[in-house]
Amino acid sequence: MRAKILILSLRFLSVFVLASALASGLPGLPGTAHAARIKDIAAFGGVRDNQLIGYGLVVGLQGTGDKKDSAFTMRSMVTMLEKMGVSVDQRQMKPKNVAAVMVTARMPVSAKPGSRVDITVSSLGDSTSLLGGVLLQTPLKGVDGKIYALAQGSLTIGGFSVTGDQATAMKNISTVGQIPNGATIERGIPFDFNSMDKLLLYMNAPDFSTTQQVASRLNTVLGGTFARAVDISTIEVQIPGDFVGNLVPLMASIENLEITPDMPAKVVVDEKTGTIVLGRDVRISRVAVAHGNLEVMVQENLQVSQPGAFSNGTTAITPSTQIAGQEEARKLNILEGATLQELVDGLNAVGASPRDVISILRTIKAAGALHASLEVI
Fold first, then answer.
1. Which of 7, 65, 90, 372 is the most buried (most CB within 10 A)?
2. Torsion angle of the four alpha carbons 22, 236, 28, 41, in this order, in degrees rounded to the nearest 10
3. Secondary structure E strands in 115-197
4. What is the CATH number that goes with domain 26-46+193-259?
5. What digits encode the pLDDT tens for the residues 190-205?
C-alpha cells in the first residue's frame, strides 16, 4: 500500500513540475523584447466557432418595416399566421410594422444545450429601421441543415434614422441590431476534447522561421521531441503521457509561452486613405531621390462686351483663358535605411506627404533598392 501511495505521489509531482515548467518556462530562457504569446499568433485545431444562420421576422416597428412590394415578407407573415390558425388575405395585409431579417450567430465548439450566445439581426428587405423591434422565434441552422439554436428577443440598435419630407437624420446603421444572449443552444456539437491523441497548432501568419521557433520552444519546455513543424503554418504536438485525458492544463500552459515572431519585410499601402505601414525589417539601399510636383492651372474668364448707347451693336460674350504652370524645385536627397527609423527620417527629409511617399516607395521598388514586398490595398 505504501509503495502504491509513493508511486501515485511521484506521478502527481511529475505532472505538477511539468505544468509549472510550462507556465513559467525553463531557466535560461528569459522573455525577449517584442515577444508574443502563442495564443496570440496561433490557433488550436478543433477549437473553433461554428457559424449559424436563420431567417425570421421582426415585429413591433413604428412604420419603418418592409413595404408592401416585399413579396417574401408578405408570404412569411401569411405562413406564420396560418400555422397559428389565423386565416388571412395577403392582398389586404400592410407589413409596415414588420421586417424580414437574417439572423446570424457564432456557436463555440464547447457550447452545450441550454447555454446562450449573442446574435446579429440584419434587415433583408427595404426596411428603413429596426429600432424598437422584437425578433420572433427563429431557428438557427448550421451548414449541415440541422437546427442548433433558437433565437428570440428585443433588438438593441446602435443608431437611429428619421426621415421627413425635406430632410433625413441618421446616426450609424439602424438596419442592423444585436440581441445579447439572444439565442439558446438546443443541440451540441459532438466533440470530446480530452480524447485527442495529438494537438495541432495553426499559425495565423504563415512563416517558416516563426513556425520552427514555436516547435523548438515547445520541445525545450516539454523536455522531449513532442512538437514538429509539419509545414509553413502547422505544428503537430504529441500529448505527453502525464496529460493524456487531461488536456486543459497542457493547453493553458502552451498558449501562454512567449516567442518572438519573425515576419518577412513588407510595406503595405492604402491609396484610398494615404495610409502607409512599414514592417520592422524593411531596408533600403543607398539611392538618390528627387520628388517634385508640376502644377498646371487653367482659368476661364467670361467678359461681357456692351455696345455704346444709341448704337446698332449687340451685346457679346468674349471668353478669356489664362494658363499658368509651376513646378516645385526639389533637390536630390540621399536615402539609405539601415533601420526603420533611418528610413522614416530619410523620407521625412524629402518633405513628402503620405501620397508622395507612396510614389517614392513604388519608384524605389522599381529601382530594386527597396528590400521588402510592396502591397497595395
1. 65
2. -80
3. 116-123, 134-141, 147-154, 156-157, 160-163, 168-171, 176-185
4. 3.90.1150
5. 777 788 888 899 999 8
